[in-house]
Design goal:
By secondary structure, the chain is mainly alpha-helical. The chain has 23 helices and four strands. A four-stranded mixed β-sheet has the order 2-1-4-3, with helices on one face.
Length: about 525
């Protein structure tokens, strides 16, 4: 028997477990699997001819995956099916990394994990989905490798330990190439594994061993970060691609106001863990109660170890927000990829280590929390559906008028489109949307009515000849735009020579003498 086969047998991986998890994941993602739901940036992904934009953003793993497997990433079903498979494998690895074996309890925690609202915000961008799923799988694999080393002796750093360290670092580097914040997920996972295995151990609690295990995790994280920067630099050199917007998220100037920064991060964490409507769009009050149940379970799990285990749990709760010390509290909620893991582990701790009446209460609380999550994401679906229907109706009408204005011109002749102004009102909806979601965003309003985005969206709808005019040409039409009425009135779309002018609002953009707000 091969070493891999014996490893699989030792951990008792099974097709039955995998099939159950895939079914749960498919049910959780049925909207994206069965509906074409383009969001902001999906239109640009649909029309671009090269994936090198990902290298400029430091995401070389997405570049590789998109080049090899998903050359047209802005599509339904396929990317999300890949995600479902990756998340099923991730769950299988996570359970074993925490010293557990599959059961109905672990399957219940997977339901919370795969439906947590952060996933909706990630899945709004179809092009990100396959690599994010792969990134989670790589982090889970790194965690299991780390957990297997934790069982061994910690007194000597052997040659196999060095090989394991390098392997974990490589996995983390590739995961960061999919989504940089996945490194934070590994940091949280290190703490979570130490906590779980300490609760399960029959030995006396040892701070020395605990710090030793966390130190090894930090060393893995450091190696992974170094390898990521090396690979990222090589990718940029090979493709001759300059860095893009990633550096704009770093806000080191916030460190000059440490009290404000820490206070802002604490408020952000409080909103996240209390399920605040201001962050998620609708309240999930059971979230806070669920974490309290987990804290009680941790405290009562082992006699005379409640305090140190509770301290580890508190550190775990704070770990997902460490990155905000560098970026500030404005980081989009979709980037907080460690939050689903924290909720998953909280449920696992409650369902596994709680006893008696407290266990029943914990089950009920997490069941209510699950229902609130499903209700919230159901509202996201309604909001997205209505917003996309509005844009499609508008897009088809604009496309129809463009073809009418084109008249007898050749069907292959480009329709050079310029736009003026934008509607400052956000699409109204009775249903929830997260604070940093693009669900309510309109392709005709985003970026102050960007003609590049609008023309790409019209091409996505089937109006292939539409192209955005060059920035240098836009200013020449300002006077004509000022005399035109606003869409959808007659005359809001007109032809001027070989150019087509669309006025979307009275407030001009920068290209026509306006200013950014």
């Amino acid at each position: 028997m091969s070493s891999f086969a014996s490893w699989v047998q030792r951990h008792r991986f099974s097709w039955r477990e995998f099939s159950v998890l895939v079914m749960i994941g498919a049910l959780a993602n049925i909207y994206f699997l069965t509906n074409y739901s383009p969001s902001i940036d999906d239109e640009l992904a649909a029309v671009r001819s090269s994936s090198e934009v990902w290298i400029s953003q430091g995401r070389f793993t997405i570049y590789l995956l998109e080049t090899l497997l998903f050359p047209q990433a802005s599509i339904p079903f396929s990317p999300y099916l890949f995600l479902v498979v990756m998340m099923a494998l991730t769950q299988m690895l996570l359970v074993r990394a925490h010293g557990m074996m599959p059961s109905w309890r672990t399957n219940a925690t997977f339901c919370l994990f795969i439906t947590y609202p952060t996933w909706w915000l990630i899945e709004e961008f179809a092009a990100n989905v396959p690599a994010t799923g792969l990134g989670f799988f790589l982090v889970a694999a790194a965690m299991l490798l780390q957990a297997e080393r934790q069982v061994a002796t910690w007194r000597h750093f052997s040659r196999p330990d060095a090989v394991r360290l390098l392997a974990i670092g490589l996995l983390l580097a590739l995961s960061a190439g999919a989504y940089q914040t996945l490194l934070v997920l590994f940091a949280c996972g290190t703490i979570g594994m130490v906590l779980c295995r300490s609760i399960q151990s029959t030995d006396l609690f040892s701070w020395r061993q605990t710090f030793s295990q966390i130190f090894f995790g930090a060393l893995c994280l450091l190696i992974g970060a170094v390898l990521y920067f090396v690979f990222n630099k090589l990718a940029m050199i090979i493709t001759n691609t300059p860095p893009d917007y990633i550096g704009s998220f770093v806000r080191l100037e916030n460190l000059k106001a440490p009290y404000w920064l820490v206070g802002s991060i604490a408020m952000y964490a409080l909103k996240a863990y209390s399920g605040a409507a201001g962050l998620f769009g609708a309240a999930m009050p059971a979230a806070a109660v669920a974490l309290i149940c987990a804290a009680v379970a941790v405290t009562r799990a082992r006699a005379r170890t409640g305090v140190p285990h509770l301290l580890l749990f508190v550190v775990l709760l704070g770990a997902p927000f460490l990155l905000l010390l560098v970026t500030g509290p404005g980081l989009p909620l979709r980037a907080m990829v460690a939050l689903p893991y924290v909720i998953w582990l909280s449920a696992l701790l409650t369902l596994t280590f709680q006893r008696g009446a407290a266990w029943i209460v914990g089950v009920l609380v997490f069941a209510v929390f699950q229902l609130q999550i499903i209700n919230l994401t159901s509202q996201y679906i309604v909001t997205a559906t209505l917003a996309q229907q509005q844009d499609r109706v508008m897009g088809f009408e604009i496309g129809r008028r463009l073809l009418t204005l084109r008249g007898e011109d050749s069907v292959d002749k480009p329709i050079w489109l310029d736009t003026y102004g934008y509607d400052e009102q956000v699409n109204a909806s009775l249903y929830a949307t997260a604070e940093t979601s693009t669900t309510r965003g309109s392709f005709f309003k985003w970026d102050f009515g960007n003609p590049v985005r609008i023309s790409a969206y019209l091409r996505l709808l089937g109006f292939g000849p539409v192209r955005a005019v060059s920035p240098a040409e836009r200013g020449a039409f300002t006077k004509q735009f000022e005399e035109m009425p606003v869409w959808p009135q007659e005359g809001s779309l007109r032809r001027s020579g070989d150019f087509y002018l669309l006025k979307l609002g009275k407030t001009p953009g920068v290209a026509h003498g306006g200013s950014l707000k």
